[in-house]
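Troubleshooting: if your tokenizer reports a length mismatch, compare your output against this known-good record of 165 residues.
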Amino acid sequence: MVRENEIREGEVVVELPPPTDAGLIFIGRIRTPWNSRLETPRQGRQDGPVCRIEIFDPWVPALKGLDLYGEVEVIYWLHQSRRDLVLQSPASDKTTRGTFSLRSPVRPNPLGTSIAKLVGIEGSTVLVRGLDCLDGTPLVDLKPDRCAFTPIAPPQPGDFEVGDH
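Known-good structure output:
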């Protein structure tokens, strides 16, 4: 069962250090049918409801060409997540594990990612299926699904001159 702020047996909370500014800019807002973590799906499904990603000015021109892809990686800020657990006890397996070994939304920098099916683009709004975040979630970035790109071949002997960086 999803929880709001409970601490389970074996979990460890730390005091957060003062924040430093990484220069993060929210480029939009995500609109979903979910207003509570208790009703939000654990993982997005590509046959789930259509969700709306509203892109703020001046970032709307950055959408050009996104419609060439069937899937997009959506990166968002989990603004209602705790940030102070270093050990967590998932309800699904009752073991205590480190935060970095889990996909939990509870993390020091609560970034969420989903690979979403691109349904369409209407002006400054991107329509997708496959999200698992709350209505009003701040958008950090959009990227075409990385599977759409061919990996770059590894460097070969002679590719770089001495002193190249």
